[in-house]
User: Fold this.
Amino acid sequence: MSAACEVVAGSGSVARRADSLVWASDPTPESVWETLLSCLALGHRVQGAAPLLRAVAETLPADLDADVAFAVVVTDGSAGYVLRHGRVDVTLDGEPLKGDALVPVTVAGRSVAAGDPDAVRTLLERPPSTRHDLRDGAVAGAAFRWSSGTAASAARDARPAASGEPAPAAAATDPPPDVEAGPLLLTKLDGPAVDITDAHPQVTSDPEQTEFHPRPQADEPSSPDLPRSAGVLVFEDGATANLTGDVVLGRRPDRHDLVESGQAQPLVIHDPEHVLSSAHAAVRIQGDTVVVVDLDSLNGTHVAAPDARDWTKLTPGVPYGMQDGCRMLLGWTVLTYHNHPA
Assistant:
């Protein structure tokens, strides 16, 4: 069984590459986030990662605000290092990690949790789950729990504790030696385009969440100032919504001013975990351009160009011009924009 990474919804960002992970608080400067992402590439040569991670630990904090926090777990699935800064909790098999900013760890057969302290406590109070298993890429999240195949299997087979205590640790290998490496060189991640997550929201009994995304109304009139169709939004399950006018997306978008004034149509997204804001983002048609605007949402709106490997978080209220194949990430929902109707 491969290692599983459970993400808990909330403020912040989680990224994974192979068995290396990072959590960063919101807001974290884009330049810092890029540096943290580049650390994940060290997982395949963790024996020489210590000097590079130590350089990051010594240089980044001087440029950070007091509210910025992060944790980076760089491993090859057996051993590695944890780099942390600010108000962040990191646990191994439920026990708080102690030590300096950079700590060598053994992870084989263990469960590692990191993120916002409140979110980590929430994770530790419940049994491990693959409900939101992040395979590769980046998503919004307040914390993560990475469990190796051995740890995940033991937790699943035991299931004894009503208290949700993690399973006992398996035998672990020694941490990697502190090997010298070349000069510090931190770049963007290379490799293929990321697959955000295989998780799919489950049906909810919440009466306010009436549907996952409403069926487009082909005969519904559009604003006389807008073209009949400016493209289509495609959900991960293949469902589509034609853009015959401006739309507001979210958990309860019908209450937004744009919808109530008749300037936009509501597009409801099923959200049992409430990671979306009531009105999360708007897709608007401005002449020949289709833009997406974050409506000051709690967890933010992220976009990725067709050939992009990483997500970019939008500044609330600032329009982002969409091109064919551009992706949007709203909570756990990924939509792709195409500039031709369905």
